[in-house]
Each structure stands twice: as C-alpha cells, then as structure tokens.
Write a structure and sequence with these properties.
By secondary structure, the chain is mainly β. It has one domain: Porin (Beta Barrel), CATH 2.40.160.10. Helix content is about 5%, strand content about 45%. A 16-stranded antiparallel beta barrel has the order 1-2-3-4-7-8-9-10-11-12-13-14-15-16-17-18. Strands 5-6 form a two-stranded antiparallel sheet. A hairpin with a 2-residue loop joins strand 16 and strand 17. The longest helix has 10 residues.
Length: about 450
Amino acid sequence: MIVVLLNILPLASAQAVAAADDSKPDSIPVDSDTMLPHPSQARWWISGQFNTILQGHPSFFARYSGPNSLQPGAELHDFRVFTLYTGLRITSTTELFFDAESAGGHGLSNGLGLMGLTNADVVRNPDLGPKPYLARLMIRQIVPLSSEKTDQTRGPLYLAEKVPTRRFELRIGKFALPDFFDLNGVGSDVHLQFMNLTIVNNAAYDYAANTRGYSYGVLLEYYDRLWTLRFAEALMPTVPNGIDLDWDLRRAREENVELELHAKAPTRRTTTFRLLSFISSGNRGDYREAVDLFLQTNSSRPAVNETRQQGRVQYGVGLNLEQTISDRWRAFGRFSWDQSRYESYEVNQSFSAGTDYRGDRWHRPNDKTGAAFVSNAISRDVQTYFRLGGIGILIGDGGLNYGRESIGEWYYNAHLWRGLYYAVDIQRIVDPGYNRDRGPVWVPSFRLHVDI
C-alpha cells in the first residue's frame, strides 16, 4: 500500500499505529488519503479499513502430502477483513478505544502447509466464519514527565496531537501485541506492504494471542527523546492457536519486553533498533516426549497435542533494525529465536531482510515498491517429530526431508484515489513446510485496500 511520507512507519499486521517522531504508520488515515475527513481537533475518532487479498498458486511438485500440507493442486482464494475504529478523548491524558472487526474468506489450503503464510490476515480456523467480533477495547492513560511536547500523528490508536516528550503510557484491555511490539517501517503491515506472515513479523516471536491474533493485557511504556522501553503482560490461549483465552495468570501468561533506540545522523538518515524478549507459560505439548511415546507404542504417528501439560515455559528473543537510506529508500532486517522443545508456532529461528522505495522518480510519490527475503528454521526435536509423520499447528506433510523454508516477495502498491489503493504481489516459496520433497511454489496476489 501507499506510503504518504518517507518517515511514516506502518501499522502492525493488526493495523497498529506507532507513536510520535518518525514512527508514523503507513496506514494512518489522514484527510488526503482517506475516503472521509477526520477532524484534527475532535475529541472522537471514527474510521475504518477494508482489505481484500486474492491469492492463488499453480500446481507444483509434491512427492507426498499430509493433512496439514499446502495442497499441490492449483488454488485460488480470497480473504477479506473489515475493521471499524472508534476512539474518545475522555480528558487530555485519557483515551478510550473500541474496535470491531469482521474477517471472511479462505487462505490457501485453509491457511495450512506453510509457516510463512502468504497472507498474514488469514485466520487459521476457517470455521469461525465472518461474524463480527470485538478486536480491541482498551483505555490509554498518559502520565506526563516533562513540559516539552512532541508531535504525534493522530490515528486509530493515538488521539492526542501533542504528547510530553518524556512520559509513561499505560494501556489496559484487549489489543494485539504487534500493535506495539516488533513494529517496522518497511515491513509490518499486510494491508500496505508485504503480505507474508514471516516478513511482516519476527517469525519466532510467539506472542500471546488467540486464533484471531488478539489478547487481553496490560501495556506499560516509557518514552524519552531517543528511546522507548515497553512491557506487556498478556493472556495465553487455553490451547495453542485456540480461540479461548486462559484468565488464570497463575498458570498461563506471557511477559514481553522491548527496548527501542533511535539515532539520527545530520543527514537525517535515521536508524531504529529494537531488542525484544518474551517468556510465556501455558498449556503446551513436548515434541521430544511425543516422539518418545510414538517409538514406545504402536501409534500411527506422534501427536504432540497428546503430551500437553499446563505451566510449560517458552521463551525467545528478537532483533529488529530499520534504516533510512535516502528520502525515498529504506531497508530493514530482523532476526528471532525461541526455545524449541515445547509446542508453538513451528518457527524456532528466522532471519529476514527487505527494502522499499517510494515512486517519486516516476512521478508517483504515493506509490511504493518493495522486496524482501525470509528464511525460517526448526530445531532437531521438531524436525524429528515431523519426519516421523507428526502433525503440528500449521504444518504436517506426513513426512519430512528437511530444508529451511525460504521465501522471497516483491510488491507494488498504487494509489488510485484518496483512500483507495491497489497492489500486485508475487511470492516464491522454497521447501514449503521445511520439506525439500515439495515445491517450489509461486504465489501471485492482488490486493484492494480502502481507508475510510
């Protein structure tokens, strides 16, 4: 999607809005780029986004397939998301947000067979259907620590136009952790930039969320002139990738910490560095235990879900680097790792890099093109589990000839009129589901996006 200003940072896959300085998201509706105007002095906020992605792939080579495989026959599916954003400034330092959402359609192979899902919006449970649901409900409290003010771009998650340069911010309620963690100006928004799940997120960041990507939690942030520190405590789902959340913090929860540093050279080439860590406790299976049980019994395949126990701990780290190269050109890099023995999204290590470029040179300043690459890996325990025929949350071919899952993606976003955008995208997946016996796969995509 279109970048209006070079220094704008995008929303996360959940359309998060970043705060202050150079961290303006690509998809923040502003009057010249939305279908309807949004008064800057109003105490309230009402806006919306509609996003639809049509994706397909031709038939590809597959030596075998399993219940969680990307299907080797040709496919064509679309997936749609509509979000209604509302907000109210109760006082100059207190804001309330309520967002409703509807998601419908299907991902390729119902969102199975790849860890690098080709559409990060896809809900990995098609039975949930398009019925509207509560996406966000939270209160934001600003605690000033200085009289100096900083401009902030007004948007769906930030209503104040000026905030103290030094401040605490507290949010309590329902939100998506990628609304605030692991943001990146070049690759964080499936609605405006790259589409692949493991490019718009640090892939081994197993953040607390239900199937739709949301959780209830508490977020505390400290902002200073050149750095920000944030901490969040969030609820875990009752089972991995489940729709229901566990409200007993004594047995299930996740802590997230991120340090964000900004450095700006005299040439205005900004470098942003984010260091992220997380630790969670929840109801998880053990891949190694599942393999041992399989080898001791006459089971047809190992089943990690049958080894689930409450209180198992998962932890990991992520690095996130963003670099402004020129007025039109930016680049990013990410690396993440997590502890690999217990059940989670099946990525234990990932690195990615990419770039985007604004279309001023061809007289299309609101157009943008980008290219990125990501490589995902799993540990030896997880490899063994899938090689013996195990089925995971998203993948499971019935066997495995292991290789890193590597994905390249290119897109071009065109601004058509006001809040209307159109994009073309192509992805190439090598060793889908970490399996050298399948693929490669080409996935062309078309996206229509409307900011209301």
